[in-house]
C-alpha cells in the first residue's frame, strides 16, 4: 500500500474503532491533544505492560518509580532544562504570528502574510509548561510540568539506593505522562504536547558505561522484534559527534520506518555522571555509591533507554496494518502480537438465538478473570470475524448449536485461520498456552 | 496501637521501605507532592489493576478511556468548574498571608501575625491549575490541568457510543492523574495537589437511576471488603439534602476509619443528566441515546463511582499494618490481600553459599514471567522473613541444601506461618492456585 494511504487508513481505523479521538472533539478539538478510546487504552496498557514486564518484572536489577508531574524549579535549574530546553522563536512584526526560526524555509519571508524582512530577533522559548502552586502567582510559587520522567529518577537515586538494597549495576524505571510545549506538534500521535514515556536509568560503574550502553542497545532492539516488529522497519542509528547532547558519551536512536520516513521510537544514551553530579552540586547531597567490597566511592554512569509509549503504540499499529483476502473477500487485519492486541479473544455465539446466549456468556465469564475478552452477538459470523480481525483479536471463540451437546467450542486463529474444536473445560489452559511467550 | 502512633508507623514504613518519598526531597521537598518508590509503585499498580479488573475486565458493560490531562477551557466552562470550583480566600493586609476564609477559627484575627480585623473581603480562588499552550501567554491559549477525570468521559460520550457498540446501561472507566490547587493539602497522601483517580461514569435510562445508584453503592463497598478491608473500618455515608452537589440526585461516600477519623475513600453520585446536558448545550452536539427497540430518544442519567487510587492505597496500608509476635520475637506484618501485595513471593536461598545460588536463581526465573517476585540472599533467614512480612509478601520460597537433592522448595505462608514442601516443577501451579481469587 502506498505510504500516505497507509497512514490515512491507520488514522481512520483509530477513529472508527475507538483507538484514538481528538481531545474535546465536540468543542472542535484542542491543540493537538488526543484521548485514547476503549481500544486505544487497552493497547496502550499492553504496550506499557510489555515494557514493564521486560524492564522490571523479569529482571532483579531494575526497580520501579512513579514521581510527581508537578515539579520543583530547582530540579530543572540543576538539570539544565530552565536554561537550555528551548526553541528559537521569531515574531512577524506585520501579522504578529510566531515561528520557530530553525524551521523557516525562507528566513526573510513570513510564511503567514508574506511580509519581507519583518521578523524580530530570535528569542529562546522554553518548552516547559509553567503553572503556579498555591494561591499566589509569583516566582516563589512556580512549578513546571515535567518535560521528561528521567529527572524524577535522578533526584530519587539516594532514596532508592537506601531502601531497595540494590547496588550498581541497577536501574530505576518509570512510565508516565510528560509535557512539552512543542511549537509544531504533528504526525498524529507522533509528536504531541502531552505524551507518555517509558524511561529507565541504569546506574553502572563508570568503567562499564560503554559495555552497558551496547547491552541496552541490543536489548531494546530485541524488545521490539520480540513483540513482532518486522526487522526491516527498524534500525539503530548512532548519533555522530556533532549530534550528541552535551551530557552524552554516546547516543543511539531506535528508529521506525513511519509512512513519512525514519523517525525516533526510542533514544538510548550514555548520560555519564552528568545528572547525578549536577543534582549533587545543586542540592549539596551526596549522590554516589560506596562499594564496600572494594572500598571505592564513585558517582555511577547512567545508561538511559527512553521510549515513547504513545508513538510506540502507533508504530505497532502501522506495522500490523494489513489488507488481505479471505475466501475472495477483502479484509483488514491488524497482525498484532498477542501481548499487544486490545482483546486476547472474542466470544461469538453463532446465532443470536436465545438458546446459545447462556452458554456463550458462561464461556465469557470463564475467560474474563484471565484476559480482556470481547463479546459480540450482532450480525453474521463472517462480519463478526472481520470486526475482530480489524482490531487484531488473536482468537475468536465460537459457540454453536453443537456446543450445547458436546460442551466444546471452536477456536479460530486470526492469522492462520485454522479452526480447532476445544472442550470448554480445557479452554483456559489452551488459551494460556497460545498466549504465553 | 494508639491511632496517632499507627499513622506514624505507617508513614515511617513508607519512607523506610520505599513506598512513598516526599518529592524533590534532596531539595527540601516540594509543596506536598509525593513520589512513589519501588514498593509504592508496585502496590499502586496493584490497587489500580484490582479496580480495572473489577470495573472493566470482568464486565462486558464497561469500557475504558484515557483522556488528556491538558484540557480545553470550554470543557470547564460547560461543567461549571470555571465558575464554581473555588475556595473563598482572604488576605491579611498586615502580613500579606492568604487564608481560606472557611477555615479561619477566628475570622477577626490573622493566624500568622495576630493582626486584628486585617482581612480583605473574601475572593473566590479557582482550584484548577492553569497554564498556556503555545508560545503566547494570552487568554486564547489557556489550558487547565484537569481537576477530575470525569469530564473526559462526558465529552467522549458520543465517540464511545459510536465506536464501541454499547448501549445504556453501560459505563466508561478511567484511571489517571488529576490536579487541584488545594490551599490546605495534608494528612500524608490523603489530600495532595496531584493525585490519581479511578472514576467510572455509568450511563443508564433515567428511570433506572435510583436502582443503579444502589447497585453501585453495594458493588463498590464489596470491592473493598473483597480485597480484605475489614468491614468495621468501612462505612457508606449518604449525603443529606443540604450536602448534595447541585447536579446530584443522590450521593454516598465510602468512608474509611483513618487514624484521624472517618474520611472519604470514594464518592458514588447519581449525577442525573446534568453533565451530558451541559456539554450538549455548550457544544451544540447531541449527547443522547436513541433506543431503536422502543423508538425512544433520551439523555442518560449517570451514576459515578469515583475513587482515589493513592488514598485507597494508603487506607489498605493502614488497615493491613500489624505488629505481632512470632516465636517470642516482635514482627511487623502487612496483612495485605495477595492482589495488593507489592511482591507475590520472595525467593530466599537458605545460605549465601554459592552452591544454592544457581538453583535459587532458576526458581526466580521460573516465577518472574508470572508475578513480581523479590530475591534476597543477605543476612539470616529469620531476618529475611521479617523483611518480607513487613512489606506484605504472601509467600516466601526457601531454597535449601535438600533442594539440590529433591528439587523441592519450601513455601512459607505470611499469615499462617505454615511451611509446605513443593517440587519446583509444581511451584507455578501451586502459586497460581494460592494467588487466585
Describe the structure.
- The structure is a homodimer of 437-residue chains.
- By secondary structure, the first copy, chain A, is α+β, with helices and mostly antiparallel strands.
- Among the domains of chain A are: 37-71 and 147-317, 2-Layer Sandwich (BirA Bifunctional Protein, domain 2); 343-434, Anticodon-binding domain (Rossmann fold, 3-Layer(aba) Sandwich).
- Chain A is built from 13 helices and 24 strands.
- The first copy, chain A, has helices spanning 3-16, 38-57, 73-79, 81-84, 150-155, 157-164, 209-226, 274-283, 309-320, 357-367, 381-390, 403-406, 427-434; strands at residues 20-22, 34-36, 62-64, 70-71, 86-91, 98-100, 123-126, 130-132, 142-145, 170-179, 194-204, 234-238, 251-258, 261-272, 289-291, 296-298, 301-308, 321-326, 329-334, 345-349, 373-375, 395-399, 408-413, 419-423.
- In chain A, strands 3-10-11-17-14-13-12 form a seven-stranded mixed sheet, sandwiched between helices.
- In chain A, a hairpin with a 6-residue loop joins strand 5 and strand 6.
- The longest helix of chain A has 20 residues, at 38-57.
- Chain A is globular.
- Chain A starts with a helix and ends with a helix.
- The model of chain A has no long low-confidence stretch (mean pLDDT 95).
- Chains A and B meet through strand 2, helix 2, strand 4, strand 8 and helix 6 of A and strand 2, helix 2, strand 4, strand 8 and helix 6 of B.
Amino acid at each position: 500500500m502506498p505510504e500516505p494511504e497507509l497512514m490515512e487508513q491507520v488514522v481512520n481505523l483509530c477513529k472508527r474503532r475507538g483507538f484514538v479521538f481528538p481531545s474535546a472533539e465536540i468543542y472542535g478539538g484542542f491543540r493537538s491533544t488526543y484521548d485514547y478510546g476503549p481500544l486505544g487504552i487497552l493497547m496502550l496498557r499492553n504496550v506499557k505492560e510489555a515494557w514493564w514486564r521486560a524492564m522490571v518484572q523479569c529482571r532483579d536489577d531494575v526497580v520501579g518509580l512513579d514521581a510527581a508531574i508537578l515539579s520543583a524549579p530547582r530540579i530543572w535549574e540543576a538539570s539544565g532544562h530552565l536554561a537550555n530546553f528551548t526553541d528559537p522563536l521569531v515574531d512577524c512584526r506585520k501579522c504578529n504570528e510566531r515561528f520557530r526560526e530553525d524551521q523557516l524555509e525562507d528566513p526573510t519571508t513570513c510564511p503567514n502574510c508574506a511580509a519581507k524582512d519583518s521578523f524580530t530577533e530570535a528569542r529562546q522559548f522554553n518548552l516547559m509548561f509553567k503553572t503556579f502552586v498555591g494561591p499566589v502567582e509569583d516566582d516563589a510559587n512556580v512549578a513546571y510540568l515535567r518535560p521528561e520522567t528521567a529527572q524524577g529518577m535522578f533526584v530519587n537515586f539516594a532514596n532508592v539506593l537506601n531502601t531497595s538494597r540494590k547496588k550498581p549495576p541497577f536501574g530505576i524505571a518509570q512510565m508516565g505522562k510528560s509535557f512539552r510545549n512543542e511549537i509544531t506538534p504533528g504526525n498524529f500521535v507522533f509528536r504531541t504536547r502531552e505524551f507518555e514515556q517509558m524511561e529507565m536509568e541504569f546506574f553502572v560503574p563508570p568503567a562499564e558505561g560503554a559495555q552497558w550502553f551496547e547491552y541496552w542497545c541490543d536489548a531494546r532492539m530485541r524488545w521490539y522484534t520480540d513483540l513482532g516488529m518486522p526487522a526491516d522497519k527498524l534500525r539503530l542509528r548512532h548519533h555522530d559527534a556533532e549530534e550528541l547532547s552535551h551530557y552524552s558519551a554516546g547516543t543511539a536512536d531506535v528508529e521506525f520506518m513511519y509512512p513519512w520516513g525514519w523517525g525516533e521510537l526510542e533514544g538510548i544514551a550514555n548520560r555519564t555522571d552528568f545528572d547525578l553530579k549536577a543534582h549533587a552540586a545543586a542540592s549539596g547531597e551526596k549522590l554516589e555509591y560506596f562499594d564496600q567490597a572494594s572500598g571505592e566511592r564513585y558517582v555511577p554512569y547512567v545508561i538511559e533507554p527512553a521510549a515513547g509509549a504513545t508513538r510506540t503504540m502507533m508504530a505497532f499499529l502501522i506495522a500490523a496494518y494489513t489488507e488481505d483476502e479471505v475466501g475472495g473477500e477483502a479484509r483488514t487485519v491488524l497482525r498484532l502480537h498477542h501481548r499487544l492486541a486490545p482483546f486476547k479473544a472474542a466470544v461469538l455465539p453463532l446465532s443470536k438465538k436465545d438458546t446459545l446466549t447462556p452458554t456463550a456468556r458462561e464461556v465469557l465469564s470463564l475467560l474474563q478473570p484471565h484476559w480482556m475478552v470481547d463479546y459480540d452477538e450482532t450480525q453474521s459470523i463472517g462480519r463478526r470475524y472481520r470486526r475482530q480481525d480489524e482490531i487484531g483479536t488473536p482468537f475468536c471463540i465460537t459457540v454453536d448449536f453443537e456446543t450445547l451437546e458436546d460442551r466444546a467450542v471452536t477456536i479460530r486463529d486470526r492469522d492462520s485461520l485454522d479452526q480447532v474444536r476445544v472442550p470448554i473445560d480445557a479452554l483456559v489452559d489452551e488459551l494460556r498456552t497460545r498466549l504465553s511467550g
